[in-house]
UniProtKB/TrEMBL annotation, chains A, B:
The keyword Oxidoreductase does not apply. Belongs to the transketolase family. This is Transketolase. SMART domains: Transket_pyr. It comes from Saccharopolyspora elongata. One of its GO terms (molecular function) is magnesium ion binding. Keywords: Calcium, Magnesium, Metal-binding, Thiamine pyrophosphate, Transferase. It comes from the Bacteria. Residues 305-468 form the Transketolase-like pyrimidine-binding domain. GO terms for cellular component: cytoplasm. Homodimer.
Amino acid sequence: MDHLTFRFELAQQLRVDSVRASSAAGSGHPTSSMSAADLMAALLDGHLRLDFDHPEDPRNDHLIFSKGHASPLYYSCLKAVGAIDDAELLTFREFGSRLEGHPTPVLPWVDVATGSLGQGLPIGVGLALTAQRLDRLPYRVWVLCGDSELTEGSIWEALEHAGHEQLDNLIALIDVNRLGQTGQTMHGWDLDAYAARAHAAGWRVLQIDGHDPEQVEAALKDAESGDGRPVAVLAATKKGKGVAEVEDRPGFHGKPLVHPEEAIRELGGSRDLRVTCAKPTGDEVPHVFAAPGGGLPAFEPGTEVATRKAYGEALRALGDRRGDVVALDGEVSNSTFAELFRDAHPDRYFEMYIAEQQLVAASIGMQVRGWVPFASTFAAFLSRAYDFIRMAAVSRANLRLMGSHSGVSIGEDGPSQMALEDLAEFRAVHGSTVLYPCDANQTVQLVAEMADRDGINYLRTTRGATPVIYEPGEEFPVGGSRVVRDGDDVTLVGAGITLHEALGAAETLAREGIQARVIDLYSIKPVDVDALRRAAAETGGLVTAEDHWPEGGLGEAVLSALAGTGAPVRVLAVRGMPGSGTPAELLGQAGIDAPAIALAAREMVAV
Amino acid sequence: MDHLTFRFELAQQLRVDSVRASSAAGSGHPTSSMSAADLMAALLDGHLRLDFDHPEDPRNDHLIFSKGHASPLYYSCLKAVGAIDDAELLTFREFGSRLEGHPTPVLPWVDVATGSLGQGLPIGVGLALTAQRLDRLPYRVWVLCGDSELTEGSIWEALEHAGHEQLDNLIALIDVNRLGQTGQTMHGWDLDAYAARAHAAGWRVLQIDGHDPEQVEAALKDAESGDGRPVAVLAATKKGKGVAEVEDRPGFHGKPLVHPEEAIRELGGSRDLRVTCAKPTGDEVPHVFAAPGGGLPAFEPGTEVATRKAYGEALRALGDRRGDVVALDGEVSNSTFAELFRDAHPDRYFEMYIAEQQLVAASIGMQVRGWVPFASTFAAFLSRAYDFIRMAAVSRANLRLMGSHSGVSIGEDGPSQMALEDLAEFRAVHGSTVLYPCDANQTVQLVAEMADRDGINYLRTTRGATPVIYEPGEEFPVGGSRVVRDGDDVTLVGAGITLHEALGAAETLAREGIQARVIDLYSIKPVDVDALRRAAAETGGLVTAEDHWPEGGLGEAVLSALAGTGAPVRVLAVRGMPGSGTPAELLGQAGIDAPAIALAAREMVAV
């Protein structure tokens, strides 16, 4: 069989197997798989350099299906390279199968979960940046994109960043099959429209007939000759290619074929071709950054330091101690103090500009290769990337995110800049860790712990300076809490800015003869259930105070921990829309300052 | 004073007032205001047609500061047109002042809150669409954008949609002052770079020196001659223009000037010029869509209908009854059943393609003019627009959002498509309403209620068909709940898919002699505190079940309602990362199906 014939037969096999898998499952996206089969056949046969026996090899190319719904095609590729067998292919979408509806990293060859459109390409940007600036290895990042997903703003963020960073190791294979879920896409087969956009962003563009094996081969070959620009292969294709009943016809998105046996016959029947994927060559190893070591920063108790500043200092010190720690920021590094890391470790700092989706996506890409990214911006603006954060959990990604300027305590800037939902947002991410330090030394310890933790780790910091109340080096294990002041009449629970308000309230109450226990709940998730239950048992009740809406934050974390105990709990939180004002005015207006906490405690004790 | 001299003097006044307001506040963004002063002076003087005495006039132009941090400039404009006086100007950022750190609609001339970058332009797209397709009035939408925010993907979504929809009534004034918060922007003063991007998206581009009054005048005049394309005026400007100490110098972002008195002198001193803004002319009135009326859909009890389908039917019927109801969808209208509205009311349907930020932003723009938009997509993908939803609450916007395909019960598609955080997400929005119907007739009633509700309204629907258990026309007031089955031993609380599981559990328990009360908690926020407290008092405890992570959803809403009552509550929720499988398999694995609920109830009764 000559080369192009083999390619054609392989592509037909991928189509047949996509049809078979979807029919076995009774659901899935065969037609969206069939359009890209020729691209994948060519990629596997001579272009992708990936050792499927050793997916952890750092020299491997990476392949991301940004159009994750084409999972039947991806799994058919895995079968064609011998990574899975035909029996497993037919477990597609079954309960317990590794072959989920959309690819996830339960399969060792899948870097990240996809299925929320527009995510694969920005994550690919993160991997391509990793290759060039961190690993410093010549691997390539291939991303299969759909045309429907090109309307996602996150795709544009990726185009911008890849062009700006000159990522010529990033190749987007764009399957322009014209048809979305409900009808024609915005631009149909107007490849020139897409080309103009990609060109404008600094990409090299190759326009081809995605079903012509010679054109596909020429484009992939050309794409590999890096010239400083990322490459977009714009492939005009037909959805459902090869089966007349569905080819280029609307109404067949996301459905198994009605007549799969006929379709398989029309495609030339089942095949059992095996393609040997190229392995990476050379003996390069990933770059290792020198880490001279050094201590963690220490702050003098009694001084006042913003926790965001302590974050920056801690991150810089971590960078001194560990070569695998990297930092990214969304063009606010002088507010988040990520600039301290940037100035000390410029090679490991990434300016992501004001593009929070790309900020988080790049971090996801970097952790795929074992780097330890810390990404920061205002906590309010991390909400821009919530879908990426949600999906990062599905990707089993290890992220460290820092959100600054939380709550009304930022003061004059007003509600657009105030994160008042971030605790709810991050608590409701699977397996997440949510930390909220009240002082600089605590911040340092928590930042250091985040570096070693799996999953989605979030640190909430405060804009204004807060008193340093802990000694340097004190330990604050994740999942713990700290009794900052003892007392048995009532318990005041705060974190971050409100811990200091709670301490102020306890002072006032003590003068009135009420002994309040004050708990610093710096670990919002996991939460210290034991300490809270002990407080519920030993004191007259709990008053919680948080610079956050009442829903999903510290108060509800406490209520969950105490569910069924019968302990009186009063949740103080921000209940009205704030405006501008001084931090003190706004904390007072929200009813989460020391006087408000004292009042609630008095009422509780009086009951 | 000749025209251009007046313009210059007016611009200098806007700069001086920006400096004065920021200095009075001790914070704010004078330098980002000064760069755009010439653009605004020209706009106010002969181009903007806005009756500041009658901001509700439907014929008015709209002016959105997408770069909301240039609020000192905006407020200085308000003073220049006589809308506010100098004394109020100097209340900038004070507690209780209408002049917040970033503009919000507490001022009657502000359509929407800005301050989270990249939002003003996509909302402007919504307003421009409203002008052309709903109001059918010749007003223009002027949006002042910064250059830093152009890296936001949402800006690209706006460029794409405006070009595609040929919104030549939309004019973006882009203040390319080169400097972001921390340093130079990605493209600096490379206007050609921006021009190529905007051109590619189908915009008309005018490149000018943003400080040359003749060029500014020519561009605004040209921009008004609509030719079917939206217009981007790319204005090269200098941050801090007019004050040598700060002009075009980094390090002065978001700070009052160090020497304001000298700056004011350098700018020629304070002025008290007044500009008379043009008023809209003509006697056109907003278009009114015919609404022939008709009943709401009714479903036969005992049949099975998906709540998402009932949403589509209800929406279509609402469209029959009310001409002000419009619908938008993110290219999944055959999944959300928004297609039923589209087919019945094509003039009032907007296809937003796969661009959830633009989907929500367009809805925000439409409600500014009093239209009643319903926007739909998969619930999981609304997380893409969370920052817009958060900000919509600051904008005091009235939104109706429908998220379909919630929870593990979607089955085979896997976790990327499963919303498991949406209840937490929407509960943590200020003033929000969160509804979760379990049957088709209930869905119809709730959709009808949403149309009349202020604030952010969210309806969660289920993919699969669920039994119709209510009669057509039964009422389900927001904030209420329904006891579907009575009993005094234990209470089972469900909503949506889990209500049916709870009913199944109650059947099983009844056979064992345990009488379970079943509460349909269709209104997750506001929640029916009375009914829950009554159940807590009258039964042995509550078991809640939700197809959602344990954090921030139905269970914590119940815990909040019962805080301090001492009632035993057991929260059943999804605690492990799901894969693919049948709905029944996944509900079982998550421990939220009828057997799991029955087991938890048995354990509670046994205590």
